[in-house]
Amino acid sequence: MKTALILGISGQDGAYLARLLLEKGYRVVGGSRDAQITSFANLVRLGIRERVTLESVSLNDFRSVLQTLSKVDPDEVYNLAGQSSVGLSFEQPVETLESIAFGTLNLLEAIRFNGKAVRLYNAGSSECFGNLPDAPADENTPFRPKSPYAVAKATAFWEVVNYREAYGLFACSGILFNHESPLRPERFVTRKVIAAACRIAAGSKETLQLGDLAIARDWGWAPEYVEAMWLMLQQDTPDDYVVATGKTTTLQAFVETAFTHLGLDWRKHVVTDTGIARPNELRVSQANAAKARDRLGWQAKYVMHDVVRLMCEDETRVVHA
Description:
single chain; 321 residues; alpha/beta; Rossmann fold; UDP-galactose 4-epimerase, domain 1; 7-stranded parallel beta sheet
């Protein structure tokens, strides 16, 4: 039985990854800053809370990371921890950089110091690329980050490359484009749209306020993306991979799809507010995930309209519960 340590297990990706690894027969240990008081609501929602061992670990504390590695003795480590909101990173830039860049560096150094053959997955981000209006990004596209979050993720990415090349660590990053699910909190625009649309369909008189509807993203289905993470650590050699659907659509198209699915005209319920926009908004994001398809055998089955349907179905059950 392999042991996997998932740092950031309380989040969307951590919960879905834990479920996947349990299905594959892993012993799963989850790391959280305070495992005694964290609710782990996503693990509860997926029905796997009691099947996961939980440990308190602070990635900003090297000693804490080293002690956890020694105690858990994992075969695979998945680093999904850190501040996860692009918008919030403008309000909390220092915490964002520390939790992502410094945390990843502590983890890499602890693995090197520990000296055991541990395979590491690091959560990268498509935000590192910045605007991509002309061509889809692949693994060779230069980074031009436009937010504190993206700067922190870019830093962590190059830390992983450095430790892989300098010390021979089996360490890789998944450069994931937007991936959504019902486990997203409502500060993420996709869940905000779905939740509001479902409440309106159920009789709410509210109006949904959004920023720039012209922004464009590649939206995928999160439960699929965690399989790509796992596949990266099953290869003979470590490498970095773009993970995406390859289909980019505007936020307006996402909104229209959601309201239409629920039998509503979105124009009657949505207003735009330029005050919601971020200080430095990423306008267009496009992806080329051919490497993941060719080398990992991974390809997204669900695209934006599927994601909307699946999220609406789940949210409708919640609204009517």
